[in-house]
Each structure stands twice: as structure tokens, then as C-alpha cells.
Fold:
Amino acid sequence: MNVEQRLSALVINYDSGAFCVRCVESLVADWTRDGRPRELLHVVVVDNASPSDQEPFLQALEKLGATVVRSDVNDGYSGGVNRAYAATKGIPSDAVAILNPDLYFLPGSVTALLGELARDPSVGLVDPRACIDPLGVLNLPRNLMPTPRDQVGVTLARLHPWLSRRYSDRRLKKAVPWLLAEGPLDSDMLSGCCLFTRREVLDRLEGPMDTSFPLYFEDTDLFRRVTKLGYKLVHHGGARILHHWSRSAGVGDAYLGDPHARHGRSMRRYFEKYYGGLGKLTLALCAQLERAWPPTKVNRPMHTLKDLGTFAEPVEIALPRSTRFMVEISMDATFISCVGVLGEGERWVCPQEAWNWFFQAPYFSRAIDLETGDVLGAWTYAKSTPGRLHPLEHHELAEYGERVFGGRAV
Structure:
């Protein structure tokens, strides 16, 4: 371990002040836990013209030693990252971290990520294993590289259950090794929520982000530009963080507004940039096909679902046999995007600490036998109580740290 490495961390805040403070607190704590001098960590937080009053949180961040940039315009996530990176000009750093505000660094994650960059000079970007809950039960999925073929696959999966199963088979082949990885794993895609890279990589790119992507796809564009330079992308299953998913953009109705509109513009920009006329035609044909399809036949379940009902307390799922399994949980009956839970035995009981982070919404789950690949069952249920909307306190995380990480303080 090289405790003399210097890191510049770029954090973009949009109406997530409490989470952002906890993110920086955890980063500083994990940085100093292994004996690194605090002065070798430089944190820049850009507030992207948040609509609510963030000043108390921004002042708290300054007390933590962060440089805070208060932007009077929301120029998108990519614009915020570039603004933060510009604020590091003249400050020596060996590595740069690009971070969402709703992260929490678990013990050893910084050392693992920086260590991978130092170990292999061919690594251009490395990301950690990300989970939604403090016990590390709900693991966020591996993203697939957006291509015309994948876009067609996703569209068809929404239109017919048999095609959903075909797409799911392809997705699972990449999802399972990702969830089982305990160390570095080469990949063509990472998660943009937490990325570590070397300063020299960003300097070769002349900056982190293409600002023509207002929200979403800016990370995919970064991955492609980095690999074009000849670097590898690595997912590090041994580095673990919490990612309190979608606390800025929201889900459901909260997402259907500016975030959704920005997503559409970014998607069109991405497909036109990398696939030209083919990309533009693919999006147009997929959209036309979805519009023409009977609404009642869109997003039909690809499995026969057992309705478990509505729950205030954590859900429990009984399996037909005892085995090593993976439970996938989605807000979509096609399971195009879902979190993964690893377990063993003849049932899965969602821990209370994980259940607290579920949004109040309907859910779909299915269990996969990791030994045979068989689907053990599929279920639907709903949570009747709201999900947690504020970050964990330090004493709560310390308790989870003792349970999950063998007594190491968080």
C-alpha cells in the first residue's frame, strides 16, 4: 500500500446535501483509516444549482475540508464533473475519483481501488462493488454496453415474454460472474456512480466528460473514450461501497420530468455519436415499434408470478429446494434491470435493514439456482411503507460495520 498517493475527489451535488456530507465523511474516514495523510486528499464538491436550500450542507462540507463550488446553473452531471475537475488545476494528484453524492465508502474500499490503479498501469478506470443497503445484501447490477443490438434486445424484451427470457439469458451470463467476483474483473462497462482513475488518463482525454450528454450516458461515453486510448476497465469486487440509488433523480413519477427528458437527449446523442445513421435509425425503429404495440401487451411478466401480497414488514420467499441461489429484484416484470441477492438454503428472508431502503412500490422477484441455472420461482409483491430518504447516521453504520466487516469500525 502506498500511503503517499494523492487523490482528487470530484463530487456533484443536486438536492442531496445530507447524503453528500455523509459521502465526504466516509471518504475522509476511509482515506485516513490506513494511515494516509489527510492533506493528500483534495475533495471538490460542485452544487449544480440545487432547487432547495443546500447551504447548511455546503457549509458542513467546507468544515470537512472540501472545496465547494456553488454553481448558479445546472449544466448537467457532465458539466458539473468538468467544473469540479477544473477546480483541481494546479493541485498535485496521482488519482482522480468521480463520485455521485449518495455514496458511502465502506472499510478498505479506497485502498483496494487505488491499489488496483497502482498495480496495473494498463487499468484506465476501476469501480467497486455497489450495494443499496448497509448490510451489502442488495447488489446493484452490471450494466451492459449500449449498442444497436442491445437496444433492439431491450425493446423486444418489453414486448413479448419469450423475448424477455432470451434477453435475460444473455444478461445473466454477465451478471453472475460480476456478483460473485471478490477481486478485479475485466469489463467493457462499469458503473458511473464511483470511478477511480489516474490523472494522466484524464489529461490524455483533455478532461473527464463530454458536456453534450446532459444526464446519463456521459459515463458510457467516458468508458469508450478511455478504452480507445488502450486502457482496461476493471470492476473490483473486493472494494465495497453503499450507493443509495436514485436519491437525486428519483423513481416513478419523480423521475418523469427533467431527468427523463435529459435521459432521452443523452441516449440520442450517444447512439448518433458512436453509431451514426445506424444508431439514429435503431432508436427510431424501436420507438416506432413500441408505439405500435398494444399497450396491454407491453412489459408482460416473462414468468408465471405468484402474488405474495402487500407487506409493511420484510418479505420472505420460500424456495422449492435448498441450494445456492441468486434472487433478482426488479420494479419491472421483464427484469431488464434488477438488483441481485446471493444466498444459500431453502428460503430468502429480506433483512430489515435492507427492506428499509426499498421504495414504496410493487416489486418482482425471481430466484436462480446457481448450481444448475434453473429458475426456482417468480413472485410479485408490494411494499406498503415509504423507503428511507435520509442517510444513515454514523452510529448506525458502525453497528453494521461490526456485523458485516468483522468488527472494523466504519
The longest strand covers residues 316-330.
